[in-house]
Structure formats: C-alpha cells, structure tokens
Amino acid sequence: QVQLVESGGGFVQEGGSLRLSCAASGGTFSRYTMGWFRQAPGKEREFVTSITWSGDSTYYTNTVRGRFTISRDNAKNTVYLQMNSLKPEDTAVYYCAAKKGGTPYYILRYEFDVDYWGQGTQVTVSS
Q1: pLDDT higher than 90, residue 101
Q2: Which of 1, 4, 16, 122 is least crowded, fewest Cβ atoms below 10 Å from its Cβ?
C-alpha cells in the first residue's frame, strides 16, 4: 500500500511562491507516474500537472503552464510542485496523486486513473 503525504501549503500574497512536497512510502516510487490535482471551494477537483517515471516528461494544464513546475527525486521518493506568480484563483486544496504501473512515459491526467491520493494541503492566495 502506497501512502502519500503532502506538505508545504500555506498562505501567500498574490505574486508570491510556494513549494509543495509529496513524500511517498511503500511500493516502487520510480515506477509511479505522479501528479498534482487541486480542488477550489465549490468546484470539482481538477488536474494540475503530471510527471513521468524518470521525470523526463511533464504536462501542465493551461492555467498554470509557465508558472508551476513539477519535479521528482526518485532517490527521496518525493515529488515537488514549485508554484510561482501565484494568483487568487490558485487557491485550493492541492492533492498529490500516483498511478502505479503503466508505461515509463504515461501522463496522468484524469481522476479515474489515479491509484493513490494524498490527504491534501491547503494553498491560499490573497489579492
């Protein structure tokens, strides 16, 4: 059983930065496609970004591309989300997600594809 634990959320002013971390335990982390989703108040959970097994390929939703960067350290079983130029509309609970197996270049984009979820970490951006 894989457990995902997020950290790094908090309160930041518009234009600021935050770095989220997601530590995984159990399983073979280097064989998991990892991603981040978020859920804003009153809205459905949405895809944010995904990274392949080795970290060679990444994918971003349009609203965060150029501002957010996903990365991973397989030696530390950790995936990161660097968030820059934050906007009030980025306010949400951010969830780390993992898909086991698949292929080395698979991109995680949909909730139904996720095998494991973290508990979520709150990010609040004030204007």
Answers
A1: no
A2: 1
